[in-house]
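Closing statement on the adenosine-5'-triphosphate sub-project.
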Amino acid sequence: MASRNQNKPPSPSQNKYGVDEVSVDKRRRIGNTKMPLDTGIRVRRAFSVVNGAQDQPQISGPPSNSGSDCGIIEFTKEDVEALLNEKLKIKNKFNYKEKSEQMAECIKRLKQCIKWFQQLEGNYVTEQEKLKNLLELAEKRSNDMELLMKEKEDELNSIILDLKKNLEALQEKFAKEERDKLEALDSLATEKDSRLAAERLQASISEELKRTQQDNASGIQKIQTLNDMYKRLQEYNTSLQQYNSRLQSELQATNETLKRVEKEKAAVVENLSTLRGHYTSLQEQLTSSRALQDEAMKQKEALGSEVTSLRGDLQQVRDDRDRQLLQVQALSAEVLKYKECTGKSIAELDSLTTKTNELESTCLSQSETIRRLQEQLAFAEKKLKLSDISSLETRSQFEEQNSLILELQNRLADSELKIVEGEKLRKRLHNTILELKGNIRVFCRVRPHLSDEIDAKVVSFPTSTEALGRGIDLTQNGQKLSFTFDKVFMPDASQEDVFVEISQLVQSALDGYKVCIFAYGQTGSGKTYTMMGKPGPSDQKGLIPRSLEQVFEIRQILQAQGWKYEMQVSMLEIYNETIRDLLAPNRTGFDASRAEHAGKQYTIKHDANGNTHVSDLTIVDVRSSKEVSYLLERAAQSRSVGKTQMNEQSSRSHFVFTLRIMGYNESTEQQVQGVLNLIDLAGSERLSKSGSTGDRLKETQAINKSLSSLSDVIFALAKKEEHVPYRNSKLTYLLQPCLGGDSKTLMFVNVSPDPSSVGESLCSLRFAARVNACEIGVPRRQTSLKSSDPRLSMG
Ligand SMILES: Nc1ncnc2c1ncn2[C@@H]1O[C@H](COP(=O)(O)OP(=O)(O)OP(=O)(O)O)[C@@H](O)[C@H]1O
């Protein structure tokens, strides 16, 4: 209070110390108890507060000056009036004595108060004197100060003049600066905004910076470890490069060997066919020689018997001749005897002479017969000798041919062995190449423009040597995005061109591998066309029918090498996350099957060998591709197909065809179990674009969910994550052995060239690129001696 009053100039009613003169005067008058009730009079008094009743103060004795238990209260005019009224009331209420006593008491107290006031007044006077002294001192000092102030004032006046000049200049400057300031304020406001934005940015940047710094720190650590790893990897890389170059050269050599073997095989096969022709002609020759020999033998035998009979005849003739000679000799001796005995008659002699002549003529004729017979005999003997010679010749020819046949048979066996060996080598090399790649292979196929599509080019194919036949460029919003796959089929690629590229895989199924080929892509991009083809001309047939034809053709060829095969087929579809058996008996149409098999729960199970079984699924034994074609037609009728805005005949489910092949080689006692899975996935499509509602919407949502589960699985595999979410959908769980197991897997990514589908095409190509980078297990051939469960499984 005091310090505040020091700064204030004294009011006219105050003295020079700032004390209210009037108030002091009034206080003096209060001390005489006669207090005029004029307005504005203030009474200062000390009192003690009794019973805490501040609103009804009671005077309980002289207030002490010591301060802490005393307070100062101001009695206003009203208070004093109230006090006097109270005094009057008391005066009227009580009798005089009491009242006078009370009054005396009051007076006593008032006296004490007055005494106290007087004391205060005394204090006040001493204080006033002190203040007077102080005032004098202050006045003196003030005079000094005034002098000083005057000097200073002069100085200040001159300074003020200068300052005025300066002020004018400054005012001008100020005006100018004011303008600048206004401008600056504007810019400041804008800057403030930008600063706020910058501050927000800075805050986010500093957060990011912190994160980045943390990342950086961990990155540095990582870099260090990576550097170490890099060094080790470099060493490893060099060794790998060496190994790789060795492998490359081995691969080259193997390829050359393979080519040579293929050539040799072709030559051997050709040789074999000529040898087979030769062998057949020799066999024919042999049979004819044998027939000739038999004939000659028969002739010989006939001639032998003729010679024997001739010899008998000759002997007989000789005997006759000898007998007749003896007769002639006897007759001649008789004639001589007769001649000696001339006594006999001439007639007898004549008769005897005629007899002798007759005998001689008979003898001559018989000699002639003998000669003839001898000639006949000589001729027959000559003929016999000739037939002997020819039979000997035939025999030697026969033996020659026999040895030739034996030689040919040996050569044939050698060639067949070579073919088997060559085939084994081919399989080994083919599988080595696939194993070296170690990932899911991806083929891309772009279908041609359909009649109702705009013929604008959003898809192009690079022509550089390294990307030829493997690259595809997609243009979106003027930006060209490039992708590379194992093979890219342009729109003009025929079904045959596509099949040629996968025929090796089909062969692998016969060799005992699990093979999985599936088609992925947006609705209407050509998946069903690629997998199944179009009904009608044979050149429109898709991969499934062509693969089956090849399987049965090769089965026929391998039969010659001792292989016997048994084949089983199953077909299912996954519709709205539910498995449906497409070959279930009495299944004639979609609705019938829905009614009959709605309650059936087909469960998927994988056994320890990585084979997949679907419970209650119909499995059909097949012996020809025709049987399978019939089953395919049956299944096609049962499939869930519908019309969408994107495709007239859209597959609303995933179609899974499985051919289980069990082969047994009798000569080597080898047994193989191959599986061929051919899958036509339902088309991915945007809900907005598909225009689906109701059931179609539900189908589309189910399709998109399972396809997104497929991409989750692929991403997890690509990142080599510990947990791969195969169980998130029926499709991925069914394909588990194909995606992450030991099967040979090939994915077709079908792309539409329609400019309105460029977004979907990009998604499909990006997904396919991820799949291509995905490493799966090494394909394993399933060979054994005896199968524990010969029933069909998925893979
Ligand atoms: N390479 C091709 N050559 C000629 N026509 C083709 C080719 N690919 C597809 N098509 C035609 O394009 C249309 C759509 O093909 P498709 O039905 O195979 O598509 P999708 O991908 O199976 O569709 P969704 O997923 O809806 O079943 C069909 O009319 C088909 O004949």
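Residues 96-340 form the longest helix (245 residues). With this model delivered, the sub-project is considered complete and its resources will be redirected to Aim 3.
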